[in-house]
Design the sequence.
């Protein structure tokens, strides 16, 4: 089961600490793009359905009292596709982390670059990657959390550039989808291809973390990287069940 961007950030950050960043940024149909439907109409529909202006939500706050900046994709907004606003908000997140001298966490859930923005969408791959280089120069941790699905231009840029790349169980992670690859190479792919468990066996990601354990795991890792005291264990939630992630490809 996919989580909304806001639910994910509220479940991660300490209650009462959240401040949203970049909410004033809105997408524009500069190219007047139209396929079977006008891009501006697709945007209006996605905004109405999700209550979001675009596919990435960024907040700063604290995690076990440690200052952090966190970003999360809203997959319900046009498949979490990356356009100019997503890129701009991610860069805003990096800039805030640099200003506050704190770690950055990003939860990815995206089908890739937004075709309706053409080159302006593709350039966000370079823009976001260049911004992360500043985090590396400063020695600040960036943790990328890959959720189902993380594909295309997002997986080919900042989603795989974490100091640690963590995935949720059974998340689909890759560039092209399995069906596209099978049609191209004309071979049957192995079971579980591009899923988290397959990728960790091949060394493509660093660890798999279940959703109920994510908050404490991230806090523990970041505390160690920032030379801070380890966080206190969180109370167990009895009977908590994590719904399975469906075995499906993201829609194009």
Sequence:
């Amino acid at each position: 089961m996919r989580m909304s961007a806001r639910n994910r950030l509220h479940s991660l950050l300490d209650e009462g600490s959240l401040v949203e960043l970049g909410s004033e940024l809105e997408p524009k149909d500069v190219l007047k793009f139209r396929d079977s439907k006008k891009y501006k109409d697709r945007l209006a529909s996605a905004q109405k359905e999700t209550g979001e202006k675009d596919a990435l939500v960024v907040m700063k706050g604290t995690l076990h009292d440690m200052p952090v900046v966190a970003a999360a994709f809203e997959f319900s907004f046009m498949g979490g596709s990356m356009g100019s606003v997503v890129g701009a908000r991610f860069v805003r997140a990096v800039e805030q982390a640099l200003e506050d001298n704190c770690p950055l966490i990003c939860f990815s859930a995206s089908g890739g670059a937004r075709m309706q923005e053409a080159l302006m969408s593709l350039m966000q791959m370079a823009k976001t990657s260049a911004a992360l280089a500043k985090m590396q120069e400063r020695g600040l941790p960036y943790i990328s959390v890959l959720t189902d699905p993380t594909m295309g231009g997002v997986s080919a840029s900042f989603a795989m550039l974490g100091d640690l790349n963590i995935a949720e169980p059974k998340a689909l992670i890759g560039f092209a989808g399995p069906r596209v690859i099978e049609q191209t190479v004309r071979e049957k792919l192995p079971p579980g291809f591009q899923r988290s468990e397959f990728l960790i066996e091949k060394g493509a990601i660093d660890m798999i973390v279940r959703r109920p354990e994510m908050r404490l795991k991230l806090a523990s890792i970041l505390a160690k990287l920032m030379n801070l005291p380890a966080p206190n264990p969180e109370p167990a939630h009895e009977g908590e069940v994590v719904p399975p992630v469906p075995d499906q490809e993201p829609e194009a």
Remarks:
- The two ends are 19 Å apart (CA to CA).
- The chain has a mean pLDDT of 93.
- The longest strand covers residues 142-150.
- The domain at 5-28+49-225 is CATH 3.90.226.10 (2-enoyl-CoA Hydratase; Chain A, domain 1).
